[in-house]
Design a protein that fits this description.
elongated, 8 strands, 8-stranded mixed sheet, alpha/beta, single chain, about 15% strand
């Protein structure tokens, strides 16, 4: 039975642990570290996994180690775990935003490494995750990494690691874009005289329904857009307003900004 260790017991780790247990993995094969006693108690109580204060204890004898910590925490854990990783040679899976594979290799050694970028809907099993791997990752290890991240939702492999910052721009950061859109729709409806609860419910459900149509119909978004747009109708009027305000350009600039910031975060870690 493969033993998996999670370094960090935050929300993303919890979602993956819960998903793995729901798909049949034994809680006894999962260990997790968390610096907060309350967090450790909650993890043990909810999932039945072993929870430790020390990262070394959680990683002991693990065949797969998942780094579920913020990027700025990496320098603090590398000295603690490098010797452990060199001795055990685990498959290392990182979900730390912006951290490159070459940085992980420099910090932890020449290990099989998978870099992942999940997003927050993973917390409800509806995430979208991009993955890339170094040449040391074997086909069985790729399948193993994908199985773990599949517990959080959709997964897609990206061959060129340079595109992982783009994954951040269109998936990792993108839930906030849709939240902002629903927020704007809600505010616009309230400005028209609708009560806020009704406006929020209608806008949120519309976002959910449109997303389901995109994922379940198999149709391109442009085709779905055309189907709902009657000539000279209300939808056309709204879309023409979007076009005048250059919605496509606004989105492109936002994705470029998120992508660029991902690279900057990685560059900042090069200095540590």
């Amino acid at each position: 039975m493969t033993r998996i260790a999670f370094i960090g017991g935050g929300n993303m780790a919890r979602s993956l642990i819960g998903g793995l247990i729901r798909t049949g993995m034994a809680a006894s094969s999962i260990a997790v570290s968390d610096p907060q006693a309350e967090g450790r108690q909650a993890l043990s109580r909810e999932f039945g996994v072993a929870a430790y204060a020390e990262n070394r204890q959680a990683a002991a004898d693990a065949e797969v180690v998942l780094l579920a910590v913020k990027p700025q925490i990496m320098p603090a854990i590398r000295e603690e775990l490098r010797e452990v990783f060199q001795r055990q040679r685990p498959l290392l899976i990182s979900i730390a935003a912006g951290v490159r594979i070459d940085q992980l290799e420099r910090w932890f050694g020449a290990l099989p490494i998978v870099r992942c970028m999940p997003n927050t809907p993973a917390l409800i099993g509806a995430g979208a995750t991009g993955l890339c791997a170094n040449a040391r990752v074997s086909p069985p290890q790729r399948a193993q990494a994908q199985h773990i991240l599949d517990a959080a939702g959709l997964t897609r492999w990206v061959d060129d690691e340079a595109l992982m910052d783009t994954v951040t721009g269109i998936a990792g950061s993108a839930p906030a874009y849709f939240f902002a859109m629903v927020e704007a729709l809600e505010d616009a409806a309230v400005a028209q005289g609708m009560d806020r609860d009704t406006a929020r419910a209608l806008a949120a459900q519309t976002c959910l329904g449109a997303g389901r149509m995109l994922t379940e119909s198999g149709e391109a978004p442009a085709e779905l857009r055309r189907r709902v747009t009657s000539p000279n109708g209300t939808t056309q009027a709204a879309l023409e307003s979007f076009a005048r305000d250059n919605l496509a350009g606004i989105v492109a600039h936002a994705v470029a900004a998120a992508t660029r910031r991902g690279g900057e975060l990685a560059a900042e870690l090069d200095k540590t």
